[in-house]
Specification:
Strand content: 35-45%
Helix content: 10-25%
Order of helices and strands: EHEEEEEEHHE
Number of strands: 8
Number of domains: 1
Oligomer: single chain
Length: 139
């Protein structure tokens, strides 16, 4: 029963991304990037999305089914995604390089462009946050 909590700036985009079908022309969030978990999220798991978990303002945003859970590496100018094989090894899946590809990746994560996403990462996690390794969860 994986629960995911979001900051206030993402609530509107997560709620839009949980609608079926997602609203046309509106910014939506269809994925989230997280640190590795002790019990990894797997495709097929039901995801429970919340705002402000562990606070008195906590509220449920909705539920979805995990479509994929992949290993991700984010640097200042590149995003690399890997599939996790049954034997625990990683297999290269895709690299996002260049402005257009990085902007498309950032849009799926609820940002308007890569530059905004990168600035948010630095302001939230500090100047030494890159390279980041974690999990990319899509619903």
């Amino acid at each position: 029963m994986p629960s995911l909590s979001y900051k206030g700036r993402f609530v509107e985009y997560v709620e839009a991304g949980l609608q079926t079908p997602p609203p046309y022309g509106k910014r939506i969030k269809l994925q989230t990037i997280r640190n590795f978990r002790k019990h990894p999220i797997k495709p097929g798991d039901t995801l429970y999305h919340f705002y402000g978990m562990r606070t008195k303002w906590c509220r449920k945003l909705g539920e979805s089914i995990c479509k994929s859970s992949q290993v991700i590496r984010i640097s200042r100018n590149e995003v690399t995604v890997y599939d996790r094989l049954d034997n625990g090894r990683l297999k290269f899946n895709r690299a996002y390089k260049g402005k257009r590809a990085l902007d498309l990746f950032a849009i799926r994560d609820g940002f308007s462009e890569w530059r905004e996403m990168r600035m948010w990462w630095v302001s939230t996690h500090g100047a030494k946050c890159f390279p980041f390794k974690g999990t990319l969860i899509k619903w």
